[in-house]
Amino acid sequence: MHTIDTAITSTNISRFLVPGIFVLLLVLESLRPLRRLKRARGSRYVVNGALTGLGFLTGVLAVRPAALGGAFWVQQHSFGLLNLVNLPLWVQVAAGVLLMDLTFYYWHRLNHTRPLLWRFHNVHHADPDMDVTTSFRFHWGEVLYSTVFRLLQVSMIGVVPLTYLVYEVVFNGATMFHHSNLRLPVAWERRLNLVFVTPRMHGVHHSAVGPETNSNYSVIFSWWDRLNRSLRLNVAPRDIVIGVPGYLRPGDNRILPMLALPFAQQRPYWRWPSGKAAARKIGEVTDTSFMVE
Fold first, then answer.
1. How many other CB atoms are there within 10 angstroms of residue 115's CB atom?
2. What's the rounded Cα separation, in Å, for the pair 122 and 243?
């Protein structure tokens, strides 16, 4: 009963905390933007809001019940990696969050490298700008099939309900933060990025240049990209065009085309509408291992 009460309390906290972080970042990024937006906010907000709403509905109906149900089953049967030894609760929660973030790194990477999964994940990257409203802009189909991953992730790691709920709040907060268009002082961001994913780091992941999009997969902790040699920090925000080149035509970023995108014939992703390949010349890349302006 105590576990159920804790889960309910954590859920109630997240209901207020996540929207609060979203609104705060929305205000801050408008006051101190990192990149100049190319499209009008109003129409983008409508599209991102609609895709986010469908994604959240799918998550509420499928992903969350499956993940929490799996976590309660894990707790009752002492199943999974973290239940092989008797750990203090705080160690179990901390280790669970770390392992879930690590395994999600590989899941995210898989969504980029497998053509069928990329068809759906492309909806997230096809946003022609990136700000906090991009955070949860995912095709409902991607959210739905991620249920299988979440269930396997929770059960194999041995995640109990409290750990899952803590991870969910931290994951959502980190996702909103690194998608935000918030300009932090470079010195602050360099220090912060030694541990966490930051807006400049994730901005490279949304670049219109294919090799840059296929980097910086981490969500909470930046360590995973460092360990897997997929980290790029050498492209300045001013040099990044956000979006997928093949889907940057004026009429592409609308609700119905985005919902139909995974099921339609795919365009060449990394070519501009003109047919020219999206690439960055060597001289255009700042030669530094640190974040640049």
1. 7
2. 9
* Residue that is written with structure tokens 């220090």 in the block: 191
Question: pTM above 0.85?
Answer: yes
Q: How far apart are CA 143 and CA 107, in angstroms?
A: 12
Contacts of 258 (CB under 8 A, 6+ apart): 47, 51, 123, 126, 139, 252
Q: How many CB atoms lie within 10 A of CB 81?
A: 14
DSSP line for 179-221: HS-B---HHHHHHHHTTB--HHHHHHHTBSSHHHHTS---SSB
Which single residue is written with the structure tokens 């576990």? 3
Helix axes 161-179, 89-113, angle to 10 degrees: 50
Summarize pLDDT for 184-213 with one digit per residue, the tens.
Answer: 999 999 999 999 999 999 999 999 999 999
Element (H, E) at 148: helix 140-157
pLDDT tens per residue across span 158-177: 999 999 999 999 999 999 99
125 close to 244: Cβ distance less than 8 angstroms: yes
Partners of residue 277 on adjacent β-strands: 271
Q: Which of 211, 222, 184 is nearest to 200 (CA)?
A: 184
Which pair of tokens denotes residue 241? 């065009």
Q: Decide: 268 and 246 in contact? Cβ < 8 Å.
A: yes
- The residue with tokens 């001289």 is 283
- C-beta separation of 157 from 99 below 8 A: yes
